[in-house]
Amino acid sequence: MNNLGRILLVEDDPKDVELTLTALDEYNLANEVIVTSDGQEALDYLFYRGNYMKRSGENPAVLLLDLKLPKVDGLEVLQQVKSDEKLRMIPVVVLTSSHEEKDMIASYKLGVNASVVKPVDFHEFVNAIKELGVFWAVINQPPPGSVKKY
């Protein structure tokens, strides 16, 4: 599946990162997954700042975003992505452990494409990531400029 785009995973919990990467790898759902552990690092990646000044030009095909992040929270990341002309077309999926209705409402008001509460059970979590990966990496047509040309 060489036409799969890059996934940007913004997650501060190392266990959730490991589970997500395992699920994506097990089902071959991404050519490349970039992991950032806080909102500031994610914004640096997306806006070519700091350690990411010289990254390749393609935007991610999808952004998997936790809401409860250090430095800059997920809602602020979402707001900045959706208000930027070059980034607003990137599909954003919120992956959160929060069951708070206000977080879901705020996410949708800011333009999130999907919101998923992380299952606690390991197998449910892996299955949820697999289903997300299949949809966003295989079925969905990514925005122009988000898929590498091999």
Q: Helix and strand succession?
A: EHEHEHEHEH
Fraction of residues in β-strands: 15-25%
Q: How many angstroms separate the termini? A: 11 Å
Percentage of residues assigned to helices:
25-40%
Helix and strand content put the structural class at alpha/beta
Biggest pleated-sheet summary: 5 strands, parallel
Mean pLDDT: 82
Report the uncertain regions. Answer: none
Spatial strand arrangement across the major sheet: 2-1-3-4-5
SS summary, helix count: 5
Number of extended strands: 5
The Cα radius of gyration reads 14 Å
Q: Note the overall shape.
A: globular
Structure overview:
It is built from five helices and five strands; from the N terminus they run βαβαβαβαβα. The chain has helices at 14-26, 39-46, 74-82, 101-109, 122-139, and strands at residues 6-10, 32-36, 62-65, 92-96, 114-117.
